[in-house]
Structures are given as structure tokens and as C-alpha cells.
Amino acid sequence: MGTIRLTTAQALVKFLNQQYVHIDGEEIPFVEGIFNIFGHGNVLGIGEALEQDSGHLKVYQGKNEQGMAHAAIAYSKQMLRKKIYAITTSSGPGSANLVTSAATALANNIPILLLPADTYATRQPDPVLQQFEQEYSIAVTTNDALKPVSRYWDRITRPEQLMSSLIRAFEVMTDPAKAGPVTICISQDVEGEAFDYDEKFFEKRVHYIDRKLPTKRELKGAVELIKASKRPLVVVGGGAKYSEAREALVEFSKKYNIPLVETQAGKSAIESSFKNNLGGLGITGTLAANKAARQADLIIGVGTRFTDFATSSKTLFDFESTKFLNINVSRMQAYKLDAFAVVADARTTFEQLIPMLEGYMSEFGDKITKLKEEWLAERDRLSKVTFTREKFDPEIKNHFSQEVLNEYADVLNTELAQTTALIAINDTIDPDSIIICAAGSLPGDLQRLWHSNVPNTYHLEYGYSCMGYEVSGTLGLKLADPAKEVYSIVGDGSFLMLHSEFITAIQYNKKINVLLFDNSGYGCINNLQMDYGNGSYFCEFRTDDNQILNIDYAKVAEGYGAKAYRANTVEELKAALEDAKKQDRSTLIEMKVLPKTMTDGYEGSWWNLGVPEVSNQEGVQKAYEFKQQKLRNAMQY
Question: Which domain holds residue 240?
Fold first, then answer.
């Protein structure tokens, strides 16, 4: 048995180059590359190893640890979890910056490999720069903060530990049921220590991702439930997208006249133009989808976690008469809502179910078409929302006085409504373009209004709804699909929170497009506080003397080296979008939009929040009473 003497960091890089996945007969390298911000703890270890021989790994220099990890998450998600990027950081603050991104990956079941440097295994020079000290244990480091937000976590204090740790890490990342962030912390002195590694450890290793088949018992139970139902409804979650179940779901829906509704993660698994696709479900759902959910007597969840936004805090369905059938590779998720569980791959399950249901037909009849037509008429109305200084569109729920709206219109020099702008964008960019979003009011508007007519072109991070994901994530989209135009749809609040990898995209000539909606505030949360009886309190961007902030984001983008546009009318916006398509560098289109011009909730869109039980504000008291009424009809487990 031969050996090869390498440092721990060199062994790591060599191993990453030899990991492959095998899916549906296709074999591809699993690790595409590695993002880095070098500092003490990793520059002399992993940095030296990559400089010496990076193999096929693509190496990118990030600008913020959280930002480059967001780019890696978006890449893996867009690649349907078939490929990943690794992340290497220094110890201390560099490692701590990974916590938010690790939680984002965990909430979305996205595999990424985090490689934060750690303190000295020998402890001889402790405390080193950026090392804190805990009185109860000298073994605790910054990286312990990553334990609860990692699917698998390990600390390497000897070179030979790397072997078993990496094999375990890749087992986790390539398991559809457990996929998530893996954190391997390598002590900074150990990164440079050498060991005689077994040569077999560096041979090509193939991780087989086989489709889990449903059992006969599961298929029999599913068929019985569907045949006994009159109005079944399919909830398309992110798992349907990762399973690539589009064709099977479309055939199932067509053949048995069963409507489809989408979660944020599931949207664009099936194109919006499909006749039985009623759009988003739940709090940010369409009127059509929520009405269908009310009428359904069987909910078929496909690869969904049934979050509170999808279920309207467990108030959307009629739990007295509705049954649940869940198809999911995760046993834990399949058990949700006391459902009949089919723990199996979505595509394979539907391929087997379709012939077993011969002779069945739902009783929805032409109701699916009527519901869709009703919603499309509402969408058309929202594309034409208007503002005047005398009277704002009465159909839009608005907590601001006409005087305050006029103030925003004057300061921001705009009369543009958010819904109008979004639909104009949808109508102008190429259909195969990919959009990304994560937080604020924009995800709700997108789930309701955006038409994705090419599969896998709608990329929402709503499992964690992490502000700051949008722009950095767009770089990940471009790395995943270099030939397509990619667009970050982002509010000013999220842009200010984090947009570090915009600079990385410009640096490496990876063209991305940032569509920045500026309403000078945290508009979504401002709506929320005022919806529940509070005033407008610290959610608008105002100075000490109560003046609205008017930031020139286009100038910021120009300073970075991007092509920038200012568009405060639909005509200006469409012209900017068309010109941006012609550019070979990254672009930013700044849109000043009026606050309170996003969509409001439709039927079935209630959200359970921590409303104060005691308050001297009448609006808060009413909100609390309404909450108690809704909870009486909610499922409690």
C-alpha cells in the first residue's frame, strides 16, 4: 500500500478534486471550486495548497465571508444540488461571518462545504490574534457557533483525522434527505502539518445519488387516498424541483384534472403558463391558489416543508374534512400535518402513481380555468396601479396619508408603483432569464405576480428569507448558468445589508444585473407593524430632522465599475432593461418606487405573529382579538 506525504491542507485540496456524483446515469465532478478570503489561519495552509496545485477547482476571491457563502448556496441551489463550491475563511471574525449563511443553507437543505480556520491544536501560543477565551472551557472557539447551523460539524486537530471526516462530510452533502451545510474546522497549525496519507484516499470517489423508490404499501395508500378524494390539490415544493419531476407532475395534473399550487421554493418547477398551475400558495399566495386550497379535500405535498407561509400559519386548509398525503425524501418532512407519508423520490413516485389511477377524475371540472382567469384579471389590474397627488389608487391598501405619499413622491421624484415595475420587468426581460430574491415585500409580489415560463428560472431563498442574499446570490446564478442573463430583484434595505459579491462579479467579469427597488425604508416590516395597529416606527429611512433619505445608488454602482441606470417610469425602466441586455459588464438599475405599492394579502393569507396581549393602542387590541379568533380554527400540531 503506497503513501503520499502531504500537509493537511494539500490533502484536502487533492481530495476535493476527486469527488464525483452519479445521478440518472450521469457522472460529474461534485466540487466546482472554492471561494476564499485569506487571513491568518488559512493563507499559509489552504492558501499555499491551492497556489501549489488547485487541480480543476475554480478559485475566486470573495469580499465578505457571508456574501461569498451566499454565492455558493445560490450556485448549489440553481444546480439542483448536483454541484457545490467550498468556502475557506480565516479564524475569528472570518469564521463568525459564516453563521448566517450556514443557517441559510440549512433552512433550504442546500449542500455547501465550509472550511473555517480554527485556533491552534497545540494551544501553545494561545490566545492568538482573534481568539476569545471562555472560562468554562479552553476548547471553545468561534467555530462552535456553527454547530447548530451545520448538518455535519467536525474539528480537525490531527492530520489523519481529515480522512474519516471528509468521507462523512460528503456522505451528508450527497444525501437528498440530509443535504445541508457541512463545516470542517481545521486548526491553523494542523493545516501545515504533514502526514503519510494512503494513496487510495485520493483515488476517484463516486457518490451515487439514487432515486428512492416508494414501497408497495406507500403506493397502495396513496392511490386509495387519491381515489377517495373529490378535489385533490398538489402543493409543489422545492423537492419537486430537485427531483426534476416536471414532466411527471404535468402528466398527472393533466390526466386527472388536478390543480397545482406552488411554494416559493417550488415555483418554476413547472412553468406558470401550464393551464392547471394556479401559482403561489399561502400568505403570499394568489387568490386562485388559496381558493383552491379552501375547496380541496386532499392536499398532496410534494417535496415541501409546509412552512407557515405556505399554510397561512396552519389556517389555510379545512382540517375537519381535508386529508394530507406527503411525498418527500425526508421522513421528518413527510410526517408533517399528520399526513400519510410516502418517503420517496417525487418523480419516481408520480411515474408509478399515474398508471395506477386509471379511471379516476377529480371533480374540479372547469373551476381550475375559472380560478386562473379571475387571478389573471387581478394581475392585469396590478400592472396598471396609478398615483396622483390628489388620490392614490383606492384598491391598494395604504396606511400612509396622502400627504406622506406626496412627500415620498416629491423627495424620490417618482410616481412608480412596485407592482407596475415588477410586471414591466417580467414582460421585458428574456423568458429564460433567471431572477433571484430573498426578503422584504418583493418575494410576496413575485410569488403572486411573476410568470416563470421557463422551468428553473425563479430562485427565491425563502426558507430563511435572508436579507443580503440577493446580490451575492446572483453571482452564484451566473456561475451556474453563464449563458443566461441573471437578475437580482432587491429592495434598498437588503442592498444596504449586504451586496459584497457585486464587486466580485465585476472583478471576474461575471455579468449580473441588479434591479434595485428603493422606497427609502424597510417597507415590508413597516406594513407589518401598521397592519397590526402600530404606528410607523423606525422602519422608514429618515434623518434626525425627519427628512426622507434619498440615496444615489446608481452613483454607488458606477463607483464600483458597473453600468448604472436611473428609471422612475415604466418607459425608462423598459429602455434600461433593453440596454442592459446589450452590456458585457454588470449593471444596476435604480428604481425609486413609492411605499405602500406592493400587493396586499388575499383570501386565506393570515400570518400568526406575536401580537401584544396588552396594549393601549386600539389597533393592537383589535389585532390580538382577531388572532385569537383565527387560532381557534388552526391546526395545533
Answer: 216-374
3-state secondary structure 493-526: HHHHHCCCHHHHHHHCCCCCEEEEEECCECHHHH
Amino acid identity of 54? S
Query: Helix crossing, 418-428 with 367-382: angle to 10°?
Result: 110
Residue 366: partners with Cβ closer than 8 Å, 6 or more residues away = none
pTM of the model: 0.97
**Structure-block grid coordinates of residue 95:** 469564521
Q: Which of 145, 173, 208 is the last residue of a domain?
A: 208
From the list 602, 597, 608, 598, the residue with the least C-alpha distance to 634 is 608
Q: How confident is the model at residue 393 (pLDDT cuts 50, 70, 90)?
A: low
Across 201-229, b (16+ Cβ under 10 Å) vs e yields beeeeebebebbebeeebbebbeebbeeb
Task: Collect all residues with Cβ–Cβ distance below 8 Å to 246 and sequence separation of at least 6.
Answer: 240, 269, 270, 455
pLDDT at 397 over 70: no
442-449 vs 418-428: helix axis angle to the nearest 10?
50
The owner of cell 380554527 is 633
Residue 420 and residue 480: Cα distance in Å, rounded?
A: 30
Same domain, yes or no, for 250 and 278? yes
Question: Are 120 and 185 part of one and the same domain?
Answer: yes
Q: Answer yes or no: are the C-beta atoms of 449 and 419 closer than 8 Å.
A: yes
Sheet holding 434-437, edge to edge: 458-460, 434-437, 486-491, 513-518, 587-592, 563-566
Three cell numbers written together for 448: 403572486
Q: Are 117 and 45 in contact (CB under 8 A)?
A: yes
The DSSP symbol for 636 reads -
Q: Distance (Å, rounded) from C-alpha 288 to C-alpha 217?
A: 34
Q: Which residues contact 463 (CB under 8 A, 6 or more apart)?
A: 104, 107, 108, 109, 238, 265, 305, 307
Looking from the CA of 396 toward its CB, the CA atoms found within 13 Å total 29
What's the rounded Cα separation, in Å, for the pair 130 and 74? Answer: 29
Q: Cα torsion at 411, 416, 422, 427 (round to 10°)? A: -140
Q: What is the CATH number of the domain that holds 111?
A: 3.40.50.970
Peptide linkage before 159 cis (omega within 30 of 0): no
Residues 302 and 422 reside in one and the same domain: no
Do residues 561 and 243 touch, judged by C-beta distance below 8 A? no
Residues 327 and 406 occupy one common structural domain:
no
Structurally, the chain folds into a number of domains equal to 3
Position 620 scores a pLDDT of: 94
Q: Are residues 70 and 468 in contact, defined by beta-carbon separation less than 8 angstroms? A: yes
300, burial (CB in 10 Å: exposed 0-12, middle 13-18, buried 19+): buried
- Give the pLDDT of residue 387: 82
- Report the pLDDT value the prediction gives residue 474, as an integer from 0 to 100: 98
